[in-house]
Amino acid sequence: MKPSYKDGVSTHFSDESYGSTTWKREKNQAGLEPDNCFYFENEARIRGHLEFNLEEDPPPDLALEIDLTSKSLNRFPIYARLGVPEIWTYDTGELKIYQLQENNYLEVTNSSIFPMLSIQELPRIIEAFRLQGRRAMRQAVREWVRARF
Question: Which of 6, 9, 46, 63 is the most buried (most CB within 10 A)?
């Protein structure tokens, strides 16, 4: 069952951010550190872990890359080897969504994690509240989500 979100929190399962954790899969000789990553569907499986082993633990459900100084597209094959199902990239006010399909990432218009939200609207909100700080930005995003449910 796909998640249902209200107030930015899933009504079906928890979510967890693991920031810029380094992810490695020895068997596939792959490793990287996203700008941020999140668990949604697999949050319960990794809850409480202090260390991760991608040979046994699932990869994050979503990786976020901020491409202001360098582009992340050349890292997509590594993400594919790690098995991360969805990547969002943010660059100069534009947010793109990529989903893993047959070991390659394809750009899509809707997130499989948040299928009912028009994710491309987020950069406008981020930019409008960026100078007010993270707390104001998070509150604005929560209100935006609330207005859509």
Answer: 63
CB of 25 closer than 8 Å to CB of 55? yes
Stronger pLDDT, 16 or 97, i.e. the higher one = 97
Give per-residue pLDDT as tens, 129-147.
888 987 888 788 878 877 8
Residues, the chain: 149
Is 78 within 8 Å of 31 (Cβ atoms)?
yes
- How far are the Cα atoms of 2, 37, 47 from residue 65, in angstroms, in the given order? 23, 9, 23
Locate the DSSP E strands across 49-142.
Answer: 62-66, 86-91, 94-101, 104-108
Closest to 19 in 3D by CA, of 7, 29, 33 = 33
What are 103's two structure tokens? 């070991």
Give the predicted TM-score (pTM) of the model: 0.74
Where residue 51 falls among pLDDT bands split at 50, 70, 90?
Answer: confident
Cα separation, 38 vs 6, whole angstroms = 17
